[in-house]
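Assess this one:
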Amino acid sequence: MKRLKSVFLICVLGLVVHQNSIAQLTQADQPQYAATKISPNLLKGASIVVRKDSSHLRIQSIGEGVFTTSYVYTILNEAGDHFANFTVFYNKLSHIDYMRAAVYDANGKFVRRIKQRDVQDYSSADGFSLYTDNRVKYAKLRHNTYPYTIKCEYAKTYNGLLFFPGWHPQTSQKMSVERSSFTVFSLLSHSFRYKAINLEKATKTPEQNGVQTWSIAQLPAAQPIPYKKQTSFPRLLLAPNYFEIEGFKGNMQSWNSFGKWINQLNANRDEVSPETTKKLKAMTSKLSSIEDKIKVVYNYLQQNTRYVSIQLGIGGWQPFKALTVDQKGYGDCKALSNYMYALLKKLGIASFYTLVKAGKNKRPIQTDFPSSQFNHVILCVPTAKDTIWLECTSQSESFGYMGSFTGDREVLLATPQGGKIVRTPVYDQSVNTLHRQAQVTIAPDGNATAKIQTKYKAIQSEAIAWLISQAPEVQKKWLYEHLQLTGFEIAQYQLTLKKDRLPVGTETLQLNIRRLASKSGKRLFLKPNLMNRYRTVPPTMKDRSSDIYISSVYAFTDIDSISYQVPEKYDAEYKPAPIKFSNEFGSYKMKVFMDGRKITYVRKMVVNAGTFPKEKYQEMVKFYKQVTKADKEMVVLVSGT
């Protein structure tokens, strides 16, 4: 009898499981994600619609947390396909608990579910890494017809919480959002801080029993706002008050306390060999200038080390010992900066290990929200006369030059007293200069030969600095693609770089140019602005919502002086009158004059960096319209025979 009951129970349980499986399949087949259900307001200007996005962060201790997320995206066209790449990163300090994903067609009908064999597991090394435990699991979910929908779910456990995953409900101008939510559940009191950015339309539940939820709905695709300092996208930043990684406990309530944690990681890692110390002292013994000594040590660093990233566990934040770099000759940004710090220390020169958010177009850090916002390390060397900043990963960078990669931004100094926010050097229109001189000889058929020398300074020199390190075929291809000319041949070229606190790159060209001047009967039509015509005008905006921001990276002073030798018996039938205008966004001057058979064109354009009132936007648009019009001015030459 007991055996019959057991068999009956097994049958019942099997039937329930079978019915549940059928119910799941039936539910999957229901067209809940049909594209026709999307509001027309969310389709306008969109390539992807977030149908549902629900994320949860569970903070279990100062060193452990679990993040789970489930999101549904409808991909409307090819421009949204990259959102169909299901990507989850992990490393020694985190592991993926599960990954699930499915694809639905335009009608919301279930198409397929990813299987284990569909998920690829790769190293996420950057190409420079010798050892790294950073990895990524990846599955491609693209479908063959549009629109289609993907549903992705995963959970990840963190064994070390230096930073918390935040909430980014909208991440693209082509993305609209039906609904998105983010929930934090903490088992600890006062365990995290947050900062809401552009979340005025979001709702937040009151904190109750350690649970807080933010949600937002019905966000149309964002309209791009040019010349804006911060992103317009909504986001929620989170950071721990206290944290622990592999036994290293820290406090992130202030920049000062975060800097103390960095010092804790770096403690007792600044020894170098007696042989290296002796060598450095011999190399600098006859130098009286502190700057000269620093420069000698920096040259030694560049000549004897190379950049190799090693990211293993706590090594993602802690440099390996200076003695290791001394012996091996390689290291990542942390290790090489720490090594340079150690070398200078042996000469009695103090310096500061410095965290920076590097990159030409990176958003500024949130200085009012202490947190891990950095991706690179440099070195700051204060002296009595000046502060010297050193990029320690490059074997070719100019001494003391930060440029577009790390210049003009807030960074965190790890001083002996703790962390301190300061700003790196600004490179703006006063130093980002271009000086071009050219001699051009025009033939009667409009063809021409030209000798051109252009000197680029500071940020404008960076393209030349990169180009010099490339093979000749790469250099020539780049020149053909980037010179503002059509129908030309490079007869000769030369590239040089003068390394300095403000590096100068020189480009010398000899060109043969076809139909530089257009011939019509007895006339030649010539645009005297040879190769520096401004073509970009900001889009018109009626109601701008934010102030205008022009980064120093894009501020410059350009001076062109072009001399044209015209054919015999040709005179100027028309030459433009001098042009001059300016406002707070910049200035422009152009003049054309003729002396015998020689025409000289002189142009100076300045673009100013800064933050300007939003009400001035139309004045900025007007300025660039004037520039583009002036750059199209033409000289008309007529033959007397």
